[in-house]
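Same chain as my last thread, 261 residues:
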Amino acid sequence: MYNELKGKTAIVTGASSGLGKAIALRFGEEKMNVIVNYLNKKEEAQQVAGDIEKAGGKAIAVQGDVSVEEDIDRLIQSAHEHFGSLHVMMNNAGIQNEVPSHEMTLEEWNKVISVNLTGTFLGSTKAIAYMLEHRIQGSVINMSSVHEIVPWPHFVHYAASKGGMNMLSQTLALEYAGQGIRVNNIAPGAINTPINKEKFDNEEQRDEVLSMIPMKKIGEPEQVASVAAFLASDQASYVTGTTLFVDGGMKLYPSFAAGKG
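reply #2:
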C-alpha cells in the first residue's frame, strides 16, 4: 500500500471490466478518488464504483468513448468538479480483433488505432494540460502490451497501436519530465481477463499460451494493478519514459530457453 495516494484522484478508462476494473479497485484500496470510465457497461461500472466506496475510496462512473475528444474533456472535467483535482491518468481502454493483414479493411484498422493509440494520445495530452495548468506533478500510465515489441500476425492494427504507444509515451515523458509529470507504460502478457476466458478455458489453447511463457503460468489482473499502483505512487518518482512488462517472461524468446539455436 502507498499512503501518499490516499485522497488523490485518478481516471481509469475502460474500468468496467478486466484490467481496468482491477486497477480501479486497487486505487480504491489505496483510498483514492476514482473516475470509473465505461463505454456501454453502465451497471458494471457502477458496481466497480460501489466496490471502491466500500474499500474506503471515492468513485463515480462516467460514460465516454476515449477516441472522442469531447468525452475525454468530460472525464477530466468530472474529476475536477467532483474531486477538485487530477493526479493520475490511467489510459487503459483498448480493443482488438483478429484479421489476416491482407484482408483487413481500412475501417477495421482505423477503429483499433482510434481507440488504442488516438485514445491514449487524447487521454495523455489532455491530462498533461490539466496538470500543467494546476501545477500538479502527476503520473500518466498507459496500458500497452508485450506486442509493443513482439510481432503478432493477424493483429497488425493492435501491434501497431501498441508499438506507437511506446514512442508516444517516451516522447511525452521526455517533453514533460522537467515539469515533474511522469509518463510510463505497462505491458501485460497473457492475463486472466474476461476477453481471454474462452481461450484459457480451452485446454489445448491454454497449453499453447503457457508454452510461450517461461514462468509457465497465466497472470492475474491484480498483478497488473499492483504495477499501476506503484507507478502512480511516490515510490516511482524517478521512473519515467519506460515500459514495465508484466508477462512472466513472454517477451524473452522462450523457444531459446533450452539454450539451443
